[in-house]
Prior knowledge:
alpha+beta; Immunoglobulin-like; three-stranded antiparallel sheet; 2 helices; 17% helix
Amino acid sequence: xxxxxxQPWQEVETMRRQLDQLFEDIVPMTRENVINxxxxxxxxxxxxxxxxxxxxxxxxxSANDLDLEVTREAVALKGEVKAPxxxxxxHIYRSEFRYGQFHRVIPLPLEVNHTEATAEFxxxxxxxxxxxxxxxxxxxxKVAIAPQATPPVSEPTV
Length: 158
């Protein structure tokens, strides 16, 4: 009779491999899925004392290719770059450039004054300045309490 060493982590490792396989079966990482994930621009969100600063990396785009919408809670960025047309005089053998559309919504960590937002596009970097919403914290509002209009109706007893 041979002794088998108990290996508690082997069961955990087996389960991890099975879960990895399950997720790969559900959402396969095809080349198309990877390319579509790469189409959304990388962002950087930082803050100063008065503003949130959102930067988006958009190489190959021009300002006319972009559509930007800002709400108090989020920034929506859309864009499109069309692939160059090919013909018998112009043939592309290989292209790894990103063509097509993208749409990305970036939730903001705090509310901003969206009507005062500004944007600048320079060297493939879109910089959006979002003024923080300033609330008057010392301001209080008197709220009137309405008296009860009619006495409550009692339910009949049976």
